[in-house]
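lol forgot to send this yesterday, sorry. struct tokens for the thing we talked abt
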């Protein structure tokens, strides 16, 4: 289960990432310029002379609500921390495009001088998805990740491969180029050489990337050079995540403590901490293993030891005459205990060997069945938040804000779903633990059985048999 959780996290944070540094939002409204509001003036859009309606479109690139940004000097702090082998920064953004048709509100104000429903008045146009006399709006969004082209060995793209075109290079810093996730490119019907609008700027698609394995997915729909993403979002010198790789797995805890001390306002998480954010059937199975599996394993192991002891004691009882005779000819209690314990030890070794063979067969069955669990690690982002429903722009040049129904915010849940094919790990440590438990069981059973045999008196033993 730990390996499966790590696979999900690697699809989001990248291979080799031991620690991530982020910062919690301080409150509503944090998330980029304009707070995600879409505003249109009288001069915006294209007006249809025949119908008087205006077609408007606006594209925003923001760090949506729920994602905080902080100064990129945190990257230098991380790199200078003892025990850190490498670090890279990224800026997580959401590009949202709002497009639709606004009716001619001036006609509603004129309407023959009367109120709707009165003589000479004119009823307001009926809204609807077909736009007949009303308005229709579309909101489209995709995730964007600004990364350092020169530091692609760490972070989300470290677990992805270029399938078409090329990847981001150090010379792309500041350039209007983009990488697309291959799955998103297929959905959006885009290929290398096409262009994509990001934050109102046209970006050339130079390559497509996909996860290295079918069990993972990349962390964003579109990837841009970090400085380009910062400039488009108006977040110069800001990042949302710093990915840290420790020099040794044994130093992760120490590095985490050092980063927490050096960056007191930041949230420093390890892979173990981030595993708690994994959801889906993988999380349910992991919870079951944690809450039930451990105690069930302990109970089964204790039952196995008890059965081994009972069988050994039963065998000693059946061999009463044999042990009585041995003690009658001079065997000491220590020698009797050693005899029984030695026999149990050999039986434990034989049982351990058979257990390994049966275990390997079980692993083969699991590999053949390929049980699959799904997991995701993501967050909910929102944008919008105006004070009322959509309003139109009058000829006076009044600016309008497009918000959700009733003044709410438009929201989108972003997550990276991953299907994990479970595999049973086979390592030397697991084999040694299995054999060790078998030997320990044999020794415990042999010691108790031998102690039982050593307490037999020769005369009583021979008399009971006779």
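and heres what i got for the seq, position by position
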């Amino acid at each position: 289960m730990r390996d499966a959780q790590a696979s999900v996290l690697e699809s989001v944070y990248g291979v080799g990432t031991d620690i991530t540094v982020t910062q919690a939002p301080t409150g509503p409204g944090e998330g980029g310029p304009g707070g995600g509001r879409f505003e249109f003036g009288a001069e915006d859009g294209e007006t249809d002379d025949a119908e008087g309606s205006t077609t408007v479109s606006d594209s925003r690139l923001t760090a949506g609500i729920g994602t905080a940004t902080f100064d990129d000097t945190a990257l230098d702090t991380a790199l200078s921390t003892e025990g850190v082998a490498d670090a890279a920064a990224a800026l997580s953004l959401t590009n949202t495009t709002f497009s639709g048709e606004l009716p001619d509100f001036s006609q509603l104000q004129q309407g023959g001088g009367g109120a709707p429903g009165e003589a000479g008045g004119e009823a307001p146009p009926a809204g609807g998805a077909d736009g007949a006399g009303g308005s229709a709006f579309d909101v489209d969004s995709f995730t964007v990740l600004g990364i350092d082209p020169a530091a692609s060995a760490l972070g989300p793209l470290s677990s992805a491969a270029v399938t078409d075109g090329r990847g981001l290079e150090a010379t792309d810093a500041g350039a209007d180029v983009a990488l697309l996730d291959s799955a998103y490119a297929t959905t959006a019907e885009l290929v290398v050489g096409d262009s994509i609008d990001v934050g109102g700027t046209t970006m050339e698609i130079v390559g497509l990337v996909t996860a290295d394995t079918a069990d993972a997915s990349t962390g964003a729909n579109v990837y841009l050079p970090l400085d380009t993403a910062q400039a488009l979002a108006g977040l110069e010198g800001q990042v949302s995540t710093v990915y840290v790789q420790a020099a040794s797995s044994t130093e992760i805890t120490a590095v985490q403590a050092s980063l927490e001390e050096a960056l007191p306002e930041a949230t420093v998480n390890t892979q173990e901490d981030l595993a708690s954010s994994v959801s889906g059937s993988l999380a349910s199975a992991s919870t079951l293993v944690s809450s039930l599996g451990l105690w069930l394993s302990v109970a089964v192991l204790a039952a196995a030891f008890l059965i081994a002891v009972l069988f050994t004691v039963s065998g000693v009882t059946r061999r009463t005459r044999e042990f009585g005779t041995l003690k009658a000819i001079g065997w000491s209690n220590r020698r009797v205990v050693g005899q029984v314990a030695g026999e149990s030890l050999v039986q434990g070794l034989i049982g351990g060997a058979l257990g390994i063979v049966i275990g390997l067969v079980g692993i083969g069955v699991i590999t053949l069945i390929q049980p699959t669990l799904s997991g995701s690690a993501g967050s909910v982002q929102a944008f919008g938040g105006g004070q009322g429903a959509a309003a139109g722009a009058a000829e006076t040049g009044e600016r309008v804000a497009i918000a959700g129904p009733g003044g709410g915010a438009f929201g989108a849940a972003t997550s990276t779903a991953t299907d994990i094919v479970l595999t049973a790990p086979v390592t030397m440590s697991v084999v040694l633990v299995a054999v060790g438990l078998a030997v320990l069981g044999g020794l415990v059973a042999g010691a108790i059985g031998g102690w039982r045999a050593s307490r037999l008196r020769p005369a009583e033993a021979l008399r009971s048999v006779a």
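The chain has twelve helices and 18 strands. anyway ping me if u want another try
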